[in-house]
Amino acid sequence: MKRHLLSLVMVFSGFLLNAQNIYNGQTLQQNRKYWGTDNGYYLMFQNDGNLVLYTRDGSPVWDTKTTDRGVKAVFQEDGNLVVYTPANGVAFTSNTYGKGADRLTVQDDGNLVIYNGSNPLWASKSGGKPINNNSRNDYGFRRDYVNKGYKLRGGEKLYSSNGNYYLIFQNDGNLVLSNRNGNAIWGAGTERRGDRAEFQNDGNLVIYDRYNKSIWSSNTFGKGAEKLMVQNDGNLVIYGRNLNPVWSTGTQR
């Protein structure tokens, strides 16, 4: 009996470990759901040959458009995500081979991302195209700054370009700046109250509660703020035009 229970625990533990990340050399099982950690999204290679990212309620948000063509989906040893046809042709590819990709991740924000360490190489939200990490875009994949109008998703990290610091809107509702070891160096103090964080179009960084009431802000509206940056020196700064700082955490190291 104990041996049977231990076997069950090991089986379920294996599913949990594979729930978010798919690693090099792994072939995706048909009709299996590869869930994100909060069970809000899942990836499935369907028996019709299409690889699809779904919301929890079964609404598709991205797919490889390989219906009736794909027979196998593989995150290969070379870091390339490929859907093959019956004749071993390529129906879809992420074009990430030879770039050091080490995992395919179903994220809690509804994004499917291929990473090299902490460096994103490809994402479904970038239109399913390889990411040019020398450019910056609306999803913050250069990840040292975001432009006004950006909403910080729960659990998402905005890194300094050297990777030593990151900003995160935590699942407990607090906006926190930490070093790479996870030690907080600044926080907004909104734990157990914050519902969402936005760097608004008016240039104000604001945390709202679930009743849509502002509970913290940088008070930078109307000051020409353009971007929010996590700097290599550990300082979180809001810059205006011509790189004029209008607010900071004052945490430079």
Automatic annotation (TrEMBL):
Coiled coil feature spans: none
SUPFAM superfamilies: alpha-D-mannose-specific plant lectins
Keywords: Signal
Keyword Signal on entry: yes
Signal peptide region: 1-19
Top-rank taxon: Bacteria
Residue ranges of every copy of the Bulb-type lectin domain listed in the record: 19-127, 143-251
CDD domains given in the database record: B_lectin (cd00028)
InterPro entries: Bulb-type_lectin_dom, Bulb-type_lectin_dom_sf, G-type_lectin_kinases/EP1-like
Descriptive protein name: Curculin domain-containing protein
Lineage: Bacteria, Pseudomonadati, Bacteroidota, Flavobacteriia, Flavobacteriales
